[in-house]
Amino acid sequence: MFDKRIHIRTYAIATARLVIAALFLVASARAQDADAKTTPAKQEPEEVRTVFLKNITEQHDLNDVTTDLRNVLNRAKIYAVASQNAITVRATAEDMLEAQKLIADIDRPKKVYRVTFTITESDAGKKSGVQRYAMIVTGDNKSYVKLGNRVPIVTGSVDKDNSSPMTQVQYVDIGINIETSVSGAALRTKVEQSTLADEKSNVGIQDPLIKQITLEGTSTFTPGKAVALGSIDIPGTTRHQDIEFVAELVL
């Protein structure tokens, strides 16, 4: 009987020790989890670099590159330096390498085209003349051709102190005006032609009547192949114009 009591007591002590040990382990694990949550994660070292873009010509180009980097590299800090066409990046070594790869992929030389416009005029079905205008176009930058005369138009007169009146004159450009730019495989074009009509305006005895034709649109093209922009019948005459262009890759 005495041995049985000793055995039960020993078993109870051992069980109590196991329970205490288990509680200690649980408390220790909870303490470690709490320490892990409160201890900030170790940050990777960062570096700062400034990359100068070689092929940026417009402000919106720099903005596009900056936006692309910020969207891809969320942890990095990206700053655009417009006056230097440069981007400063503060990031980890891994993100910095990714930023340099992205910039190299985006900052490529823009294609340069020689665009030739041909205006073929006919009268009563017979060709009467051909005009050609050529310009160099780079990327989204606009190029212009303006050819013609500046015609004075009297807009009014001012009488100061009962002296001889001073005539007010405004000049209007008469001739041809072509505006164009290239975006990828598309050419944006605006062609304006203006001429002086034989008849006069009813507004003023000296005011000329100006006839104007505008052709504006966007056309896809293949380098070296002619593309028709449009055909125009000159109102009140038997004259007709066909306008086309050819874009040739220069660089």
In short:
This protein is 26% helix and 50% strand.
What are the main properties of this structure?
single chain, 251 residues, alpha+beta, Ribosomal Protein S8, Chain: A, domain 1, 2 domains, four-stranded antiparallel sheet, 11 strands
Can you give a write-up of this model?
The protein folds into two domains: 46-106, Ribosomal Protein S8, Chain: A, domain 1, CATH 3.30.1370.120; 112-249, no CATH class. A hairpin with a 2-residue loop joins strand 4 and strand 5 (126-138). It is built from three helices and eleven strands; from the N terminus they run αβαββαββββββββ. It has helices at 2-38, 59-72, 93-106, and strands at residues 46-52, 77-81, 86-92, 112-123, 126-138, 143-158, 166-183, 186-200, 208-220, 226-233, 239-249. The protein is elongated, with a radius of gyration of 39 Å. The chain has 251 residues and is an alpha+beta fold. A four-stranded antiparallel beta sheet has the order 5-4-11-10, with no helix packed on it. Strands 6-7-8-9 form a four-stranded antiparallel beta sheet, with no helix packed on it.
Order of helices and strands: HEHEEHEEEEEEEE
The span between the termini is 108 Å
Structural class: alpha+beta
- Quaternary state reads single chain
Main β-sheet description: 4 strands, antiparallel
Q: What is the molecular shape?
A: elongated
The rounded Rg comes to 39 Å
| Percent of residues in helices | 25-40%
Strand order of the largest sheet: 5-4-11-10
